[in-house]
């Protein structure tokens, strides 16, 4: 059995059908949203289904980059906010933060987009070598 160094990059992507997401929200209501989104995320979305759906896709993409999926990591352990300039940001809590630390992940980039019917998110995570470590080669 060989052991390899942790990957310097991890990638996740997810696509959400907005009408399907909207139907689930209508069916299960506010309690469902509270299971999926932090209060800050709900405020940012301002009740707009496409904003919630794209954050949902981002959470799935981040969970895939962590290699866990949702389950070991709770929905609210992954928080998708935005900077004052509108750039999406990832904030990890509890199990998601612990998994990222275990993988040596130190940075995240998100790309979010949606149309009337589809929301898509790509999450890229990276590990920065410690100063005494040699960066991975080619």
Write a short abstract of this structure.
With 138 residues, this protein is an alpha+beta fold.
Would you kindly provide a written description of the structure presented here, covering whatever features stand out?
This protein has 138 residues and is an alpha+beta fold. It has one domain (9-126): 4'-phosphopantetheinyl transferase domain (Ribosomal Protein L22, Chain A, Alpha-Beta Complex). Helix content is 39%, strand content 26%. It is built from four helices and five strands; from the N terminus they run βαααββαββ. A three-stranded antiparallel sheet has the order 1-5-4. Strand 2 (78-82) and strand 3 form a beta hairpin. Helix 1 (18-36) packs across helix 3 (49-66) and helix 2 crosses helix 3. The longest helix is centred in the first third of the chain and has 19 residues, at 18-36. It is globular and about 45 Å long. The relative contact order is 0.22.
List the helices and strands and how they pair.
Blueprint: E1 9-17, H1 18-36, H2 39-45, H3 49-66, E2 78-82, E3 88-92, H4 94-103, E4 107-114, E5 118-126
Antiparallel strand pairs: 1-5, 2-3, 4-5
Write down the secondary-structure element order.
EHHHEEHEE
Measured distance between first and last alpha carbons? 22 Å
What would you call the quaternary organization? single chain
What best-fitting shape do the alpha-carbon axes yield? globular
Which features does this protein show?
single chain, 138 residues, two-stranded antiparallel sheet, 4 helices, globular
